[in-house]
Amino acid sequence: MIKTVIPAMMLTLASTTSQAADPAIGKQLNEEHCIRCHGSEVYTRENRRVTSLPGLHKQVRFCEQNLGLTWFDDQIESTATYLNLEFYKFGIKP
Ligand code: HEC
Fold it and tell me: Rounded to two decimals, what is the model's pTM?
């Protein structure tokens, strides 16, 4: 009984909260799929398009959909979290 209940709970948590975001996974996904067209320099260039955290999530999804990767929400979250921690630093105090 317990064996079946716990994975179900974990699935619910993963899909309803952003706690599934794992920057280590995001780093890996970014390296695997995202630095083909642009290197990581687009994330730090002077006139970068992304100017907010919600904007970053939107842009990650946009590029991901263009690639036809069909990522799950937690993969989007992880990648956006990684890019934010590493490059954009929205809402992170220096
Ligand atoms: C098929 C080519 C391609 C791939 C692969 C790609 N992108 Fe992009 N990406 C673009 C283009 C084109 C732009 C817009 C560049 C511009 O405006 O000059 C862009 C811009 C961005 C920006 C905005 C940079 C800024 O100005 O702040 C982010 C963030 C981004 N991509 C994330 C991703 C992520 C995450 C992935 C992997 C899922 C990815 N990209 C994969 C083509 C790609």
Answer: 0.83
